[in-house]
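User: Second chain of the day. Same drill as before.
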Amino acid sequence: MAVISFCFDTYSLSVYYIVISVFFWRMIMTTYVCNVEGLEFEVEATSQKDWNQRMHSYLIRGIRIEAGMSRNEFCEWLGIPYRTLQEWELGDRIMPEYVLNLIAYKVAMEKKAGKI
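Assistant: Same format as last time:
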């Protein structure tokens, strides 16, 4: 339960508003655990549409971080344009599911072999 105390300080009111907004935002967020080729990631979302965008952008970023590479290194390693990866990670474009699985598989196999 959120309690709001009224005061005349504008800064205090905005801080209370932010705290209450974050409180209610966290109530409607749902956390999902995704497993892609043995790599596990947590994704938070509010709706199915939000879930699709967030899932793909979080997963590709998580896979890249799991590989221990920067965006530039990851793009060169996979042979994909930098802008494409950037748009996938920012959620501006949704990557095809099979591409996500192939990239995750490659990272998992390369890690298993000790190459990355």
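Residues 76 and 82 are 8 Å apart (CA to CA).

User: Great, on to the next one.
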